[in-house]
Structures are given as C-alpha cells and as structure tokens.
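Support request, please re-run this one:
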Amino acid sequence: MEKYQHVFLRSFKSSELIFDDDETKEVLKFFFIHDHELIDGLVVNDKIRGFAQGILVEAVDATYAIGFVEIVHKTFNLQPPVRMRKILAKFGRRAAVYWFKNAKATDLINVRIYNIVRTVIGSNFRKTFQAIANDLVMKRPIGVVLAYTNPLSDSIVWG
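Re-run finished. Output below.
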C-alpha cells in the first residue's frame, strides 16, 4: 500500500543550520547516490545546507510516520558509513523536536531512516537538488509528492 503526500521541506534560519560544508555534502551523497561528482564540486551555502537538513528532517519524520517501532524486529539494520553515523548522531542531538510531525525527542536519540524513504526522497527531490546545486532561483517553497510503499518490501534501515 502506498501513502501519497505532498511534502514541503522545512525552511531554516542560518542559526538553525547544524552541518558544516563536509557534513552537508555527506548528507546529500546519502540521498543522491548518482550525483556524487556534482556534490563534490559544490560550493556549500546556507541554501544548500538548509536543503540537506530539510531532506534529513523529512527522512527521519517519514520513517517514524510509517511506523518504525512497530516493524523494527522484521528489518535488516544496515550501518551507514562512519562519517554518516556521526552526522546522524549530531543531528539527533541538535535537531529541534518542533521540526518533526511524527518523530519524538526519544526517537532522536538513535536516528533511523528506512531505505525506502531514502530512495523515494533521493528520487523525487533529485531535480530540485540539481536546480539548487546549479544556483537556479527557486521562487516557491521546495516541495514534491512522495509515495512510500510498504517498508517491508525494502527492509533495510539505515542507522
């Protein structure tokens, strides 16, 4: 069963941005696995930092909306690269609870992301990412329609 929803990424003030340039690139590489060369060449600014942080908030929140706790025993946990694990831990410590609709403060202690969520976000936000990376002006809030399939069909959990 698919759940369709129109998602607008949260906007962040400069003071709310958590990640440095390298961490921002690592988050982007986690979602946009076919764009590593583009990401490596990026000059990171607050717009790109905010976008990376926004998709990470959406990924964590979507994972908990699907029902992470209910099916965790049926999934295969996959450890992301060490650098990404450190980024997820930092994100969990510094993220504001009010950024999320579904994840609670206790969920942020050990951040997890379903692979299906990672894949859908990476696919559906790819053109938007490429536009931002190429410094195209976005006049509307950043949003797409996302459809998450049954997470058990792709039972990998990152984190």
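Helices lie at 21-31, 36-40, 46-66, 68-71, 82-94, 115-124, 126-133. The chain has seven helices and five strands.
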